[in-house]
Amino acid sequence: MLASEFFRSLDMKKFLLTPLLVLLLGCSAIMAQNSMVITADQPQNKISEHIYGQFSEHLGTGMYGGLWVGPDSDIPNTDGFRNDVVKALKELKIPNLRWPGGCFADEYHWRDGIGPRDERPVRINTHWGMVEEKNQVGTHEFMRLTELIDTEPYISANVGSGTVEEMANWVEYMTFDGNSTLANLRRENGQDEAWKVKFWGIGNESWGCGGNMQADYYADLFRQYATYAKDFSGNELYKIASGFSDENYWWTETVVEEAGNQMDAISLHYYTLATGNWGNKGPSKDFSEDMYFAGLSQGLKMDELVTRHSTRMDKYDPEKRIALAVDEWGIWTDPLEGTNPGFLQQQNSIRDALIASTTLDILNAHSDRVRIANIAQTVNVLQAMILTDGKQMLKTPTYHVFDFYTVHHNAMLLPMHLDAGTYEHNGKSIPAVSATASKKDGSVRLTVTNLHATEAQEVTADIRGVDLGSVTNARILTADEVDAINTFDNPNNISPEEYEDYSLEGNELTLRLPSKSVIVLRITN
């Protein structure tokens, strides 16, 4: 019997409030109640694995030092890419990796990054710290990275400072398997077979760092570029238009209306700012519950943004042929003290992990329209999976969330009605619980997050339409403090543990989640 049921069965007037009774009452009071109904025999749409994509821009130490150390480094590497990071990313089952930007993409000229590395030109990375870009990682190196971590490449083409011809030549260089000057140049540079490269972004943030364009102008430009982005040698391009960020719905509507027939997707960018202020975004460590709550609250705005952008798209694409590609998202904080502010280096806390889990729940719920997404960024930049410092490497709490959510890759979304309590703080409230339910290979997969900073949550799930057997692979990620992080001195401070605080009776699953936690489990039949 649960503590709450026990106390309801008592006539409290007959009892003195002994210290033990007070303690039990306290435990009962903080175990808030939530319920959900999951209809397991009525699957909806597939949750594309590509929602779990990553992003690696030439920015700070994200590429150089984080992924690439060069073949002559004393850090163990394979063809220049550090082995520890490659191993960790491969284990994460990354479906796609976006490159070379970001803002950097619209000043990147692909011919700078081919041929002997010691002969490549040195440029200035004007967007991110005004540092030298020596072009040591170019097309061949990046494609080797995708092979090492077993992922699909997502190429962002230069529209802002490039030309139609430049992009068209890059597509041919990479994907044409016949006899042409560009294909033969690829062979001379060491790659005989053409690569398969499906995802192509045509411009990035063309309304801002990618050219400061107007929507009508970009729509015409997209049509022009898309015309010359050819399918070679059986490689079919998936063309992604540059969308806007946040609440700028007019850009989405204009570009889809005028160029939707030539695109497969249009992007949406949204960064969580705990303060809501780009000039003072808030710290990534050593913060209080105020910043914890604010970060989670701002992260949950993703649902409104995806809903309303999708609604605008519905006017011209009611069949949802065009995907919404949320290819930049995550929490953006002030840079760590003492670092180059242009390197966007920040820590990664349990708060950020829960922002990741709730965002993924939102994207999963909208997987009829959202079919590709990319968190920013993979290593050492913004909400990273991995942090490195010289030879040292650690997995962040966000890494572990992405590991948990691999259960939903290409699974079928299950209808779920969640009656969640609230997490109230300073007169504001958000739902205390977030979740995703899916089904694949006959098993129900469930991820559940307790956002509350101090209160445990009990969640009762009525799982209908399927005979349940046993719970397997149950794990939990949690922390003692709202700003808890992993450090190089304590890299496993926040790491997955076996989860056992549940019960399954018939088709009713009861979960008890400590504060600020996320769990994953499977239920076999």
Give the termini distance in whole angstroms.
26 Å
Number of domains: 3
Q: What kind of assembly state do the chains in view correspond to?
A: single chain
CATH architecture of the largest domain: Alpha-Beta Barrel
Tertiary shape? globular
The CATH homologous superfamily name of the largest domain equals: Glycosidases
Q: Which class do the helix and strand fractions yield?
A: alpha/beta
Based on CA atoms alone, the radius of gyration comes out at: 24 Å
Strand content: 25-35%
User: Strand order within the widest sheet?
Assistant: 2-5-8-9-10-11-12-13
The tally of strands reads: 27
Report the biggest beta sheet as strand number plus sense, adding barrel if it closes.
8 strands, parallel
Number of helices: 12
Average pLDDT figure: 94
**Poorly predicted runs of 5 or more residues:** 1-29
CATH class of the largest domain: Alpha Beta
Helix content: 10-25%
- CATH domain topology of the largest domain: TIM Barrel
Keywords:
25% helix; 12 helices; six-stranded antiparallel β-sheet; alpha/beta; TIM Barrel; eight-stranded parallel β-sheet; Immunoglobulin-like; single chain; disordered N terminus; 3 domains; 525 residues
Kindly describe this structure.
This protein has helices at 3-8, 19-30, 83-91, 139-149, 164-175, 181-188, 215-228, 249-259, 289-299, 302-314, 350-365, 397-404, and strands at 32-39, 54-55, 77-78, 81-82, 96-99, 123-125, 131-133, 152-157, 199-202, 238-241, 265-272, 323-331, 370-375, 386-389, 392-395, 412-413, 416-419, 422-425, 428-431, 433-440, 443-450, 457-464, 470-478, 497-498, 502-505, 508-513, 517-524. By secondary structure, the protein is an alpha/beta fold. An 8-stranded parallel sheet has the order 2-5-8-9-10-11-12-13. It folds into 3 domains: 1-30, no CATH class; 31-44 and 414-524, Golgi alpha-mannosidase II (Immunoglobulin-like, Sandwich), CATH 2.60.40.1180; 49-249 and 264-269 and 322-410, Alpha-Beta Barrel (TIM Barrel).
